[in-house]
């Protein structure tokens, strides 16, 4: 069948047989070629006209294209005339590779039956290759290994096949060798999808049961909801009900993504598509919810997903206090498109009004901050990232502490628990010593150390608080960029933690309060006060900078005063006259120190908290 006819078949309203549908995702480590492979599949099947093709077609956001990473999981429906004479509908979900967006990967997995595991033939299995393939195995996927970049001189396909079998434990003897950049081997990938991945199952005559996979806000259409139909049929104009929220909506538009929206009359079992139904807010659509017909509902909802739990919190404040309303508006709009981002209002004595925001990791934080600054033209101050601690109070109550500045009186607290993570680090052998030292310095406990060829895989139990700020940067610098890192939250564990307050001119600075381990508090406090001494400009009076735990000062530096020469106008004459002027200046400085306001520059907040400079 010619490709133009294949594209026409894609939009025909005839119902597709289940045996001719394949739903799959592409999983891999960052930069192993997921989005490039998706481009070639779209190009070869003629899904998008040649004039509309561009690199990383499914990465729609400017920030995705600029950083070269996928942030949102994107979907496309492809029509493929196979060698067996049948035309197949392929629903592809291109997933992110970065650990901070693992939530996007997990929910995409539940919507499909199989995965293409893309591994770089020059670099082999990396930490996030493992993390993402385990998610696919948990979702009971059929997995087809694909070796990418085999056109490069450094490619070692046989070694990488062995590594896939040793490290992951799946058969790689029939791995498909390809070059996503040049298009070599792409027809073999399409045949492997059709022949080796299972068709979906479902009953067309059963009551409608569809899974809500994703939702986003469109300025023209309102909320767009992506669904995977499990059983039954959904048609334009149907009255549907969300089982979690109990809300009912009438469908205005039903479409498939190719990747542009193309209207369709109905979606049957095994199909993936989108609808709009005059839904005003994305928070009315919960990812993982079950959608059914209002008149003839299904008995049992789908198991759904766990909601995303923010693990890193930080404050976002406008540089200009007049921009607060603009920031509020921008955060509300951004939250519409990102269900894993949370925010609440807070105030700070040093920074004024702002928001305490929750993220899934540091890259997530950076991406949100960059989008706020670019898309909404805001100048922002970001306070130091912190994690959620659990306070076990003496009266038996358990509280969550998001901001160290809100720490209650220690006499009321029985003990404090911090989040621990299980970190997997893949690193070439020659850098292993530096990596182990870095993990020891961050209070890490080694759980496992194995080898796959010349690469070591270290598994560590680490406190998340020691990781969120600059662990990843340090790891990349000690391994010259060769290490790969992946983590998951494992548990909360009690430790000897204290709140360290920074006082500038005897006034506590909320934005610089941090939780530290008692054994390391003194050295950390000393480093911070030394840095602040360099970062705060001199004033007309002496400024003490102190680090304190409770009422006990553990480190102190004094920023000396600028001295105005008050005796300049005295020429000759009695020495007592000069003395009198100096005494007057001294008394004035003492008074100024009592009432003077210290200006702390915005850059000082982040610089002071960086470790290991």
In short:
With 613 residues, the protein is of the alpha+beta class. It is built from 15 helices and 32 strands.
CATH architecture of the largest domain: 3-Layer(aba) Sandwich
Number of domains: 5
Mean pLDDT: 80
Structural class: alpha+beta
The unreliable regions are: 6-14, 56-68
Approximately how much helix is present in the residues? 25-40%
| Overall shape | globular
The largest β sheet comes out as: 8 strands, antiparallel
Strand order of the largest sheet: 11-10-16-7-8-15-12-13
Q: How many angstroms does the end-to-end distance come to?
A: 63 Å
Which topology of the largest domain does CATH recognise? Answer: Rossmann fold
CATH superfamily of the largest domain: P-loop containing nucleotide triphosphate hydrolases
How large is the radius of gyration?
29 Å
Total beta strand runs: 32
CATH level 1 class label of the largest domain: Alpha Beta
